[in-house]
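To close the section, here is one more complete example, presented without commentary so you can practise reading it yourself. The ligand is pyridoxal-5'-phosphate.
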Amino acid sequence: MQMGIDFWEFLAPDDDSVVVIDLNYSTDRIKKMNRELNPNGLNAIAIKTNPLVEVLRNLNQQNAAFEAASMGEIAIAKAAGIPNNRIVFDSPVKTKLELNWLNSQFLGGYINADSFDDLQNMQNFSQEIHLGLRLNPSMNIQSPNSLNVSGANSKFGEILHEISEEWIQKLRQFDRLDGLHVHQASQNSDFSNTLKGIRKVVDLANALPPKKIKFINIGGGLAFDYHQSKEADIDLYFSELKAICPELFDGTYQLITEFGRYYYAGGTSVYSRVEHVKEIANGRKMAIIHVGADMFLRESYNNSDWYHRLSVLDANGHEGNADQRSLTYNYDIGGPLCFAGDIPFRNHDLPEIQVGDWLKIHDAGANTFALWSRHCSRPFPLVIGHQNGKYFVLKHRETIQDVVRFWSDERNL
Ligand SMILES: Cc1ncc(COP(=O)(O)O)c(C=O)c1O
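Output:
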């Protein structure tokens, strides 16, 4: 029988869901950053967006740098072979033990302090470590609330209202400080306020003695349009950035970027088999699949902020066959978890879904499986990579024993 999906051969009977990643999607984007947009700077990719070690390993071949938000993420970068000088460590909470480790094992790396306290704790650090301070230029950017760190009550950075003599004196006291960091919001389509915030940080760097500040890290934040399957216009973003902050491109400061969603949102789909279809109110229907709030956590808890395009494939993986079905319904898509909020996708008009079909969830590569939840203890699914016409396994499906191990003390197994 002719199967509709090229990676079908990798699926075992108990693979009810599979993540499929086109690796060229992220490698094409890092090549463009490294060669065209910011060739003299450092282009870090946020590990939290997609922490699969094999994906990092693949991007390492393009000299990608990575942003790590925890010691676990540094370990993931190290497992993928990333050298310290291509890791930016942004954890907002660093313990004394972690600081000791960083000061001896993270030579060549970049660390951003989240506060003056945090910065003070690193003043005796080796000269071989680059040290920045995270600032919040208080621009009140528009983006989903849970991803917006630009407001006056943000948990991140030191809030910079005005560049004052007091600020300049304060920063001058930190001998080891040689960089400034700003990440204002994610899923952010408001370029103008973002750029104004970055400009304010560059102005602060300019107000300090020459050569004190060596790098400026502008964070991530670019939005993906999930309705149109389209990433933000990065060429436009960079041309505006260049016009507003030429110092980031003329050698005055090293420009560090740390986008996440931009590299991963597109190019990845999740396929999950439909196990049940039910009637719900007002002639609508609910299809139940095998991934829900365990993989699509934000979509389930903040439904109105998130959307993914969905397609229906028949039991053999053919999309066209399902599209030809004469009936369409309005569907909610429920996950497999045993709680009411496990409905990641709502109000989708789709061709009639039949038990045994596969649902394809588009643009599912950023902050989806990366937020994997253990609620209801289901195994993390198979992950398949796709590159240059070939498919291969990036990560095998977890076994039920792996799940038991997660909830156990190893010594008692
Ligand atoms: C400090 C920092 N940098 C970069 C990113 C990546 O952001 P985005 O995926 O919006 O590009 C994040 C995401 O939360 C972040 O917290």
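Once you have examined the tokens, check your reading against these statements. The chain is about 25% helix and 25% strand. The CA atoms of residues 171 and 193 lie 24 Å apart.
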